[in-house]
Every structure is written in C-alpha cells, then in structure tokens.
Amino acid sequence: MTLTQAEKAAVVAIWGKIASQADALGTESLERLFSSYPQTKTYFPHFDLSQGSAQLHGHGSKVLGAIGEAVKNIDNITGALATLSELHAYILRVDPVNFKVSEFLHAGQRVKRV
Q: Tens of pLDDT along 78-91?
C-alpha cells in the first residue's frame, strides 16, 4: 500500500496542526508507552522515568522530531529515517516488536526487518 497524493496532503496538514505541540505530545506518548508496555522501560535504565521528567521530555521531543522528519520526507521516509533505524536496530538492539507503529510511518514502503 502506498499513500495517494491526497492522503499525503492530509498527513502533512495534520502534522501542521500538531507540530507546535510536539514536545508535550512526545512526553505524553512516552508516558503512555511505559504505562501500557512497562517492558519497554528496560531500554531506558539510565533515565528518570517519572511523569514529566526532563529526560522523558527530551526523548519525547526527539521521537516527535523524527516523526516530523518523516512527514517532511513523506516520499522517502525510509531514507530519511535510515540512520535512526540503524541506531535502534544495530547499536541499541531494540526488539522490533516495540516498533509496530513504525509500519504506519513507512506508509506501505517495503522495510527490511532486522
């Protein structure tokens, strides 16, 4: 499945409406992730994972920043996020099961699973 031009335009429009809130949404997203999937906390042993911590805020901002990059590069998401993907797959060794949402971000592009 690939996105139509209309669907791409909708993604860009939605991102335009939420981009100004990206930091807060990133923090909230991580808090929800850790609440719903506590096993993911093991990837952050050095973080203060308490609600609203500076480290959660910082990483949440990075996560939403990556989504912003994906939106900016909607025709080449895989290329735009390749370095980040390699970091998580080969250096941080994050289990791919934790990235089910990334299938949405790739919008039907073929992604090599590692």
A: 888 888 888 888 88
